[in-house]
Amino acid sequence: MSGTFEPRGTQPDLDTLERELSAFAARTPRPDPPASLEEAAAELAGRPCPAQSIWGLALKSGGRRSFRALRAAAGLAAVAALVVGLGWGLSQRQASPIASPSGSPLPAPTGALGGVASMQLIDSTHGWVLTENGRLHLTADAGKSWQPRDPGVLLTASEHLQFADAQHGWVVVAADQGSNRLLRTADGGGTWQSITAPAPYKVFGRPVFLDASAGFAALASSQSGPWSLARTGDGGRTWNLGGPLPEGASDELAFLDTTTGWSGVPGGIAGELSHLYVTRDGGTTWVPAPLPAGKIGVSETLAPAPSLPVPVGPSTALLEVDYLDNQKPEAFITTDSGRTWQEGPSLYGASRVASFTPSDRWTGTQNGTIAWSADQGRTWTEVASAGITGQIEHIQFVDAKLGWALAGSQLYATADGGRTWRTIGPGHAPGPLPTAPPLVAPEVETFHLIDAQHGIASRTGSPDLYITTDGGATWTVLRDSVILGSAGLPAFADPEHAYRVVSGTNADTIEYTTDGGRTWHPAELPQDYVPVIAPWVLDQRRAYLELAKSDESLVLARTSDGGQSWQIAGTLPSGVIGVAMLEDGTGWANGGPVAGGNPDRRSEKLYVTRDSGRSWQQASVRSPAGTPYPAASTYQLPLVTGPHSVVLGVSSANTPNTTDYFVTFDDGQTWTHIQAPPGYSNAGSYMGAGSFIGSDVWVVPEGNAVAWTHDAGKTWTTLPGNGLPDKSSVRSVEFTDGQHGWALVDVGQPGDAFQAPGQLYATDDGGRTWRLLTPGLAA
Amino acid sequence: MEATALDVTRAGSQPLDFGRAIRLELTPAYPLAGYILGDAAEAEDAIQEAMVLAWRRWDQLREPERLRAWFTRILVNVCRERLRSRRRKPVAPLDMDRLRSADDPFREALTRDAMGRAMGCLSLDQRIVVVLRYWADLSLSEIAERLGVPLGTVKSRHHYALRALRAQLRKDSWEEKL
């Protein structure tokens, strides 16, 4: 069964805990806000009009950057070589090619190269890095050696340097009097030409090159615009002037091919919506772009600008939209050159660090791991990688094996698809290859073993689901951006059918899936009711759900169509905490109202229903001595062990420091007192972290051990826990039969203040020996 | 008595001035963000971000007396997103000495006491409800209003937060005995 994770041992009463929490909060300081916030407020109040920044407003306060609208533009320029002649019939203006770049002479190299600021892996042997001190280096032997290829001026890390192939590259650098220049090379950086913007313009916007010849750039008389489009068919040597970009457009462009491209007009920061325009004729005419239905241009809660689409393949581009109110950005994909958009597959991870080459194998990073996708981002397989230190800022692959990554100003290279990385870069020999990493996933938060082959797991803080269909040998990650509600992991009836509680902006909602979690559908709940806890699942069509109304009343609802619709079965007794339902319509609930108005005297009663939740009666159990339990005794939520059987724990008001356990095999007609498992006799002990299959029960005493009974609790055996690490603690176990089970194990030190790390182990011999599983990592 | 934005409006008989009004919100907002995020620098960033959002939507605030609820909702959403983003990043091993730095009053308060440390086990929504309930002294109904979620949802989150805290305190107590 699916266990409810309850702590072991004695627990403070919730009312006591509430008081302690109040006292703790009262003891903590309430520091005054720093002066920088006052300054920021004053600065904001003093702004006369919205700044025209497409990417958002940045406050300058104490050096902090307070608001940064995210940009979806991934770092790759050339997607596919689409060598198509440009067909504009406009007059061609000759720029002024210069044999060698002018400008300030470069200072002599100091020897200190600095860290790597940006990079591009051009093909399997060629690539470049721009160091933090402005030096450009190229390699033609996959990073074994590097040659300085400065274009005659110091570059800065922010300049957009791009190479279409090993020979042809471009960068825009600042020049005098508010102008800039485009530098181009056709010999791998050996020589550079300086191109000025054709009159009457003085500045280039960021150019976009589709290959060595074809490119586009916005041109203007000053950096503030207005911008007009220009195109080149000779690698940037000469530029043909086109028409103006849409009014108010920024200088940034995205082109899918020589005819289809996008331009963005930023909204104001006072709430004006942004607009995206598309051209189908290479930039001659621009029209409002078709956008994901109902997503952009209609809501007042949008960010000031949608990001420009990111070309990722022929006719294919991604578009990501950040919302200001709604916390989750949404990603869309087009496969028909932007005529229509579909939800997802999304860029991988919040950081948008992604490589879309080769086009049938995307790579990205998330949660500090590297993953690849072969289905345009719908599902991802993570790679257990070693050798990279720090947060990956940029990752790029040219095939399934060869890739570079930039992390912490250090360049890394892999030749095995990201499994092992070595440091490379100018100024030092390639570093040693690290040992292949141990297959450890130290942040499993919760799991559910569906059957011997199927299981799911989640990681702390991530909404992603990790699913295995081969007993944990391999895992597929289903990326998601919802926030799971308090109920946590989805409840699965079988590998395909499951329910989850989603924390929405306005209320928690229930969703169901019939395809193993790949797609989720909202359920129809009775009006004004919200889910309290994850559904209690009987099979792929039947489930129960506790619902709450604003007047505090709790009801039990049920579905018989797999979660699509829910009907109220009946009202739950006042103060009910938990409900456990059996297949025959019998159900158990515990809880109860506060006794005598005194929260310290709360008692938890036991209730039973025989009609699927329509009506509830108080149930009673006699103590091991055969006498009725006195009032104010505490009944735990019964744990279902079979079709008609549950295990129940009761703490008598007369002996509040102990817990008695009982089992019934006839829906509570008769109860048999059973021995408490090791460590479970204290008051408040609860076997909810255990697993129950008929007379076989596994529970988790303190430490790295599992206790097991095969005779419904008459005798208990503490299993040795072979294979579990020392100083670990089994948090919970789940078995699907007498042999196959998983355990979530807390290992080592207590976790970070924002996570509760655990590792997942599996057993095939009923819990005697265990092996580590690695959710999300390739085996 | 603490001044409110409404007082500012009445005193000046002027339309609600963003600068004056929002400055009055900083005093309650700073500890609120600080205890949700557990980090003074992040709290400062979050408030700045929330101020920018508030400024953009200033003309949408139709009831000045509801400024605090309105701004709290914006701030909590910003904090929520920051916590989500933080959890997606790889986490370095915890350096408790560093966390106990006296330079950060929120970290100091949350790490020196078992209760504060136990709060690390809460989910995002649970943590937000707990801070609003016990640090901002809001009733569950007021929290529901501030968050824009039904009361039942808040009760559920509060209940499960207490249960999670209870479990974590129990676990911490046991680990200390190892």
What does this 3D model show about the protein?
- The complex is a heterodimer of chains A (779) and B (178).
- With 779 residues, chain A is mainly β.
- Helices cover 3% and strands 33% of the residues of chain A.
- Chain A is built from 2 helices and 62 strands.
- In chain A, a hairpin with a 7-residue loop joins strand 31 (410-414) and strand 32.
- Chain A is elongated, with a radius of gyration of 32 Å.
- The two termini of chain A are 28 Å apart.
- In chain B, 72% of the residues lie in helices and 0% in strands.
- Chain B is built from 10 helices and no strands.
- In chain B, helix 2 (18-37) packs antiparallel against helix 3 and helix 8 (124-134) packs across helix 10.
- The N and C termini of chain B lie far apart (49 Å).
- The chains are: A mainly beta (779), B mainly alpha (178).
- At the A-B interface, helix 1, helix 2 and strand 41 of A face helix 2, helix 3, helix 4, helix 6 and helix 7 of B.
